[in-house]
Specification:
By secondary structure, the chain is of the alpha+beta class. It has a single domain, classed as Bit1 (3-Layer(aba) Sandwich), CATH 3.40.1490.10. The protein contains four helices and seven strands, in the order E-H-E-E-E-H-E-H-E-H-E. Strand 2 and strand 3 form a beta hairpin. It comes from Sphaerisporangium melleum. This is DUF2000 domain-containing protein. It holds the Pfam family DUF2000.
Length: 138
């Protein structure tokens, strides 16, 4: 039986990225949800032989694809609704570490961020309104 969650996790990636970039952006953004959203991590796993495995995010993550304008729209909606989010911008493909990533984001005003991905975690109805019009990634 499927569990129902009061919250929803959505990751939005720019559709024109190379496959490796989409995967990289999605992984980094999922780590932000794991680090910053309360109560999203489940219990550790174990197989029948007792080998331990790391805990994962306990609810589905829906991945959406859109163009640059769609990302900007979602970003604007999320900011106006106070939804916590993680951003990944184009400049981050050229950096090699977390400190440089933060510096490159800080160099842009919100309205000019060259977005390639966003991750959001919010109550389901609020996130549905924020992601309205987007399609799931094929």
């Amino acid at each position: 039986m499927a569990m129902r969650f009061d919250t929803k996790i959505g990751i939005v990636v720019r559709e024109d990225l190379a496959v490796w970039q989409k995967l990289n952006v999605t992984a980094f953004l999922a780590s932000a949800i794991a680090a910053g959203a309360e109560d999203v991590i489940g219990e550790p796993y174990a197989d029948a032989d007792g080998n331990p495995y790391l805990a994962m995010i306990r609810q589905p993550i829906l991945v959406y694809a859109t163009d640059a304008a769609g990302l900007t729209l979602v970003h604007t909606r999320a900011l106006s609704r106070g939804i916590p989010m993680a951003v990944y911008i184009e400049d981050m493909f050229k950096t090699g570490h977390d400190e440089a990533n933060r510096a490159t984001v800080q160099a842009h005003p919100a309205e000019t961020l060259p977005l390639v991905g966003l991750a959001l975690h919010a109550p389901k109805n609020l996130l549905d309104k924020t992601l309205k019009g987007l399609s799931l990634h094929p």
